[in-house]
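User: Sorry, folds how?
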Amino acid sequence: MLETVNIPEGVNVEIKGTTVICKKSGIEHSKEFVIPGITILANGNNIIIRAEKGNKNDWKKIKSTVAHINNLLAGIDKKFTYTLEACNVHFPMTLKLDKGNLIINNFLGEKVPRSAKILSNVDIDIKGTKITLSSHDRDSAGQTAANIEKATKIRYRDRRIFQDGIFITSKPEAAQ
C-alpha cells in the first residue's frame, strides 16, 4: 500500500532517515516522521509513502503523513496566518511581547500576569485587541495560537458570565 505526493517546481526535497527536508529560495522546513511500519522515499518528482502491511491502521498513518508533507510543501510558498481576538467584559487586559512569551496583564483582575509561549519561527503582530500570527510552519503557528488561547482559559467560574479570554477567530485553509 502506497501513496504519492507531487513535489512542486523549484522545491528541493531531501530525505535523511526519518526526516523530510524541504528547501526553496532560502526557506527551509524539516519534520521528523517516526511512524512504525511506514517508510518515506523520494523518487524524482514525487515523495512515496509506503506501508509494510495493508490494513486500515496503516492507511490512517499514510494519510496523516501525506497531510503533514502537503503542509510542509505549502508552507514553502506562503505563510499560514491565524487571527485571534482578546475579549473582555469585566476587566481590560493588556498584551505585550517579552522574550518569546506573550504576557497577559490584568486578566479578570488578577494581579499575577499570565503568559503564553510563542514558538521561535512565528511572527506575531498585536494591534489593540487583534492578534495576528503568521509562519511558514503550520504546526508552529497552530501551536502558538493554542498556547495563547489556553493561557486565558477560565476555570471554576460560570462561562456564561465570565466570557473574557483570547479566542481564535480565523484559521488558514487546508493545503491541497
